[in-house]
Every structure is written in structure tokens, then in C-alpha cells.
């Protein structure tokens, strides 16, 4: 599609814990998409891994979790680790590269986790954060809103790749979002 615009950006991170100001981010993946058109910018996806940033640490429960059933994915992340300041600058540049008529919308599942971590890292490296909090979109809340119910239903969408590989997670989250939009746009929502 000529002049396709992608104002939506799905972001997923993998971390060393759950505390945005103290735990480390070890992988960032982001994919631009257009929710209205249900299209994905497959030509330029962001997928980089980060070495542990200064003054960040592991939560031992998270370290054990990675060393358990997620060891294969963790080893793949470790093989690709780069200086975190380089990755954060690259992510900022990637985020700002394509211009749209609308502000960039930062999507995540849940936004409270990924947005907070990314904001913390941008502060740590004194970089302009290209995502405004007013345009942060929580995938779970969006789907609950479509349904008109506080809870959201689960969608049976095939997962391709490895769970907890941030790029695979991002692509899966976009597929779920598109499936939910299809169902609710077509009036297939059963609120009973």
C-alpha cells in the first residue's frame, strides 16, 4: 500500500526483574502497525538485546525463572547482547524514523510494565522518549473496552516461535489485537 502509515507500535521487553527503576532490560522488540488497516510494517522490525546496564540488577526469582524452562531463549538473548546505550539510541532513532499524521501510539501487554521500563531506560541514558504517556495503549484494556466488559476474553491465536522471545511475543500480540478487532468489528461479540 502506497504511503502506508504506521502510527501504532507494539513493544515487548524481556527483563531481569519487575522493578522498572532497578531491574535490567535484556531484550527490546517493537513492530510498527496500523490497527485501523490491520497492516504490519514487516520491512523494519526492531529486535535488539542489551547487556546489563549500570546500576541494574537481577531479581533472583526472575533469574531462576530464566534458568528454568526459558533457558534456550535466554541463551539466544545473551549471544546477541550489546551495549545498552547503543541499543537505546538505536531504538529512539528507529521509533522516530517514520513520520505519521498521528502521534505514535505505544502498545504493550501490559503497558504499565513495558512503558515504565522503557521510560526508565530513556531517563538513564538521557534520551528523548518518543512516546507520550497520553498515547500509551494497553492491549488488555483495549480488548476489554471492545467487549464492553471489565475482563477480556482470551483469543485462540496460534503462536509462532518461542515464548519470551520479545519479537515473537510482539508479533503474537499484534495477531491477537487484529483477531479481537475483527470479532468486535463484525458484531460477533457475545456480551452474555
UniProtKB/TrEMBL annotation:
UniProt xrefs under InterPro entries: RNaseH-like_sf (IPR012337), RNaseH_sf (IPR036397), Rv2179c-like (IPR033390)
Q: Which residues form the 3'-5' exoribonuclease Rv2179c-like domain?
A: 8-177
Keywords on record: Exonuclease, Hydrolase, Nuclease
Q: Which domain of life is it from?
A: Bacteria
Q: What class of enzyme is it?
A: hydrolase
What is one Pfam family matched by this protein? Rv2179c-like
Q: In Gene Ontology terms, what is one molecular function of this protein?
A: exonuclease activity
Q: What is its EC number?
A: 3.1.-.-
Q: What is this protein called?
A: 3'-5' exonuclease
Q: Which organism is it from?
A: Mesorhizobium sp. WSM2240
